[in-house]
Amino acid sequence: MISFLVTLPIMSMLVQKNHFLNVLLYLETFSIMILFMAILTSKVTNIGSHFLLVFMTFSACEAAMGLGLLVTILRTTGNDYISASHILKY
Questions:
Q1: Predicted pLDDT at 9
Q2: Gap between the Cα atoms of 89 and 80, Å rounded
Q3: What are the extents of the domains in the chain?
Q4: CA–CA separation, 4 vs 61, rounded Å?
Q5: Which of 1, 32, 54, 60 has the fewest CB atoms within 10 Å, measured from its CB?
Q6: pLDDT at res. 84
Q7: Is 20 exposed, middle or buried (0-12, 13-18, 19+ CB in 10 A)?
Q8: By three-state DSSP, how is residue 38 classified?
Q9: Minimal CA–CA distance to 26: which of 74, 54, 34?
Q10: CA–CA separation, 18 vs 30, rounded Å?
Q11: DSSP assigned state of 46
Q12: Alpha helical stretches, state H, 1-90
């Protein structure tokens, strides 16, 4: 069941990759599912919560960088299509 929850965002991202915002949402879903699995395994194996805190920090940084990139793409191209991001390749 948990492996299905992890592979679902990956498969959805591979199938429907038109909008950059959809890709960001799938990546956030993927990171939340990994965090959920880490919480479940930390309860079973008594791993410290430091790893979870570091993972949540990196996940928040990834979200902030993704939103910054989305704003840059929207200001540059006027849309969030992945096919229109060829303008950002300097």
A1: 72
A2: 15
A3: 2-88
A4: 26
A5: 1
A6: 61
A7: buried
A8: helix
A9: 34
A10: 18
A11: T
A12: 2-15, 20-45, 50-77
